[in-house]
Amino acid sequence: MLSATQTQPQTQPQPQARGGRTFAGALSWTEPARCRGRTDLFFPPFHERPERRARREMEAKAVCDECPVLEPCRAWARENREYGFWGGESEEERAEAGYRAAISGGGDVEWVARDALRQAV
Which of 42, 56, 86, 100 could anchor a disulfide with 77, C-beta 3.0 to 4.6 Å? Predict the structure, then answer.
């Protein structure tokens, strides 16, 4: 028990492990990103229709094409197996390049599990 003159030691938030590396919070390279505050454009809502997704991703790509941090964004998404639209690429485009998302936010969790099952057989 602490006395009235003692204080509880201050603890710092612990960094989270991500992709085998430590991730401690905000990414400095995102400061000048054109997408800041526009998550609705870069992450699909649940049960998004294919036509709407195509339009949303076309808009997202236009934002990415003008972004000064396109390359570090793309590298981050690939290295960390992100879902959503990052660095001018959709999840499918990253998967075609060999960087499949860990879990898709667009309801595509099934294909990740299916691929894992195929590799196990």
Answer: 86
Query: If we measure between CA atoms, which residue out of 41, 75, 76 comes closest to residue 57?
Result: 41
What pLDDT is attached to residue 100?
A: 85
Model-level pTM? 0.64
On whether residue 14 sits in a domain, the answer given is: no
Domain count, the chain: 1
Structure tokens at 41: 């454009």
Q: Taking 90 as the threshold, does the pLDDT of residue 14 lie above it? A: no
Q: If you ran DSSP here, which 8-state letter would residue 28 be given? A: G
Asked if residue 96 is part of any domain, the answer here is yes
How far is the C-alpha of 89 from the C-alpha of 60, rounded, in Å?
A: 9
- 17/84 Cα distance (integer angstroms): 20
> Cβ distance 34 to 67 under 8 Å?
yes
107 within domain boundaries? yes
Range of the domain at 46: 32-120
